[in-house]
Amino acid sequence: MKQAGKTIVCVTAYDALFGRLVDEAGVDCALVGDSLNQVLCGEPSTLSATLEQMIYHGRAVRRGVQRALLVIDMPFLSYQVSREEAVRNCGRVMKETGAQAVKLEGGAAMADTIRALVEIGIPVMGHIGLTPQSVHALGGYRVQGRDDATAQRLEADAKALEEAGCFSIVLELVPAAVAGRISKALAIPTIGIGAGAHCDGQVLVLHDLLGLNDAFEPKFLKRYARLAADVRQAVGTYAAEVRGGTYPGPEHSF
Length: 254
Ligand code: KIV
Fold this sequence. Notes:
This protein is α/β, with parallel strands linked by helices. Helices cover about 40% and strands about 15% of the residues. The site of 3-methyl-2-oxobutanoic acid (KIV) has 11 residues, from β6.
């Protein structure tokens, strides 16, 4: 798609229902992000997500997604300890979910691990910039690469990931100019989130773009629906009708 000049559309999905809906909407890639640990489970970060959780949700999304590329996030500590553990855990995700690829966070330091995975046939999507599994080391959810030194490090990381065999790289919270330079320098596509318009594709968390997660309002997010308000209104109306005795009516009864 990059070679053909087509922009890649990616969105998260955490279950079979939304997997089917995003697939039917025509996205190119569905990502089972470890953000599910925050969005679905209410945890403060992605750090406590487990391999079992990612496999459980990955299997569910697999049942809904027929056409789009399915990528599954590897959770914190499932791929950093050793290459052997990374191969075993990424292999489990591929075997047990039926996904076509895994995504893992980190730059040049992950190159050897990525090489080992690619060598045994596991396609890997990289993820640099704001890497949420390193939120404490980064001092918060902040834009990365604002100064020359960190921008150059990001560019070197992107190159190292491409050389290691990644088929694509997520750039998260990176200035648009830096993301544009990286996208131009790589043959593989970049997928941006909070990284401006010059990436080869974009990804958003589905619950954010649907306005379901309405407590989360980062600058980069555009809401395409306001479903949190719809849910409150619908459930409120249901509750009022049950309490008022107007639901169920004769037409809903046997
Ligand atoms: O976990 C996730 O949902 C992600 C995307 C935001 C890129 O990594």
